[in-house]
Design goal:
Rossmann fold; 12 strands; NAD; 2 domains; single chain; alpha/beta; eight-stranded mixed β-sheet
């Protein structure tokens, strides 16, 4: 069995040891990014074992993505920067379950929260929840904190970081560490200064600096604690999915991506 988070192990085995799939009964995947990669493999006809999408089970979406992020976004930012949230202008990129949790917490602390979103339903939800929908390039010069929660790549590119104001905090709550284009900051004209663990100041030639947290990796896993209650729910859901795939009779699951049966995921 493969128990994966982000699809990295699955991708690595496909690349290096594809013959191992003859002995593998199935894949269990828990992240948005990993599930997306599985669906891509399935569409291309390259998925050669059944896969279980744990990410979209209610227990994962609501507890890990929504409620856990609602608590850990503030925890992670406080531990690393000691920032005061009241009155701060924050842009949250993405209004899925993670974005909803982050926005709710920041709004409750008195921050002015902007949201960027490409999905029309999620965008409408952000609007109905009282957040101002913007394009990133409209607010990038004025915001104090930028948080990515999309599961996509290159959401915050160098062009945006060049235009950020001095002292802007940049962090990622989405699964993939490619949401912030950190590679574009590793150039000779920019100076990196390690302030403390998981906190870097990236300094421009004119003296402007941005505060980059965890080098663009997942903020709550890198900089704060995740409640054991939440982890136990997600881990249990994954264990149930592993047991279901392992014990399933021949033919129940074909070479495709499946949602965890509702009786297990609730």
């Amino acid at each position: 069995m493969i128990l994966d988070d982000g699809g990295d192990l699955t991708h690595w085995i496909y690349k290096k040891y594809p013959n191992m799939f003859k002995k593998i009964k199935g894949i269990v995947e828990e992240s948005v990014t990993g599930v997306h990669r599985l669906y891509q493999l399935s569409k291309a006809g390259k998925l050669c074992v059944p896969a279980m999408n744990v990410n979209d089970s209610v227990t994962k979406q609501k507890f890990d993505n929504l409620y856990c992020c609602r608590e850990s976004i503030l925890d992670g930012l406080k531990r690393t920067t000691d920032v005061m949230f009241g009155g701060k202008q924050v842009v949250v990129c993405g209004y899925g379950e993670v974005g909803k949790g982050c926005c709710a917490a920041l709004k409750a602390m008195g921050s002015i929260v902007y949201v960027t979103e490409i999905d029309p339903i999620c965008a409408l939800q952000a609007c109905m929840d009282g957040f101002r929908l913007v394009k990133l390039n409209e607010v990038i010069r004025q915001v104090d904190i930028v948080i990515t929660c999309t599961g996509n790549k290159n959401v915050v590119v160098r062009e945006y970081m060049d235009r950020m104001k001095n002292g802007c905090i940049v962090c990622n709550m989405g699964h993939s560490n490619t949401e912030i284009d950190v590679a574009s900051l590793r150039t000779p004209e920019l100076t990196w200064e390690r302030v403390r663990s998981q906190v870097d100041h990236v300094i421009w030639p004119d003296g402007k600096r941005i505060v980059l947290l965890a080098e663009g990796r997942l903020l709550n896993l890198s900089c704060s604690t995740v409640p054991t209650f939440v982890l136990s729910i997600t881990a249990t859901t994954q264990a149930l999915a592993l047991i279901e795939l392992y014990n399933a009779p021949e033919g129940r699951y074909k070479q495709d991506v499946y949602l965890l049966p509702k009786k297990m995921g609730v």
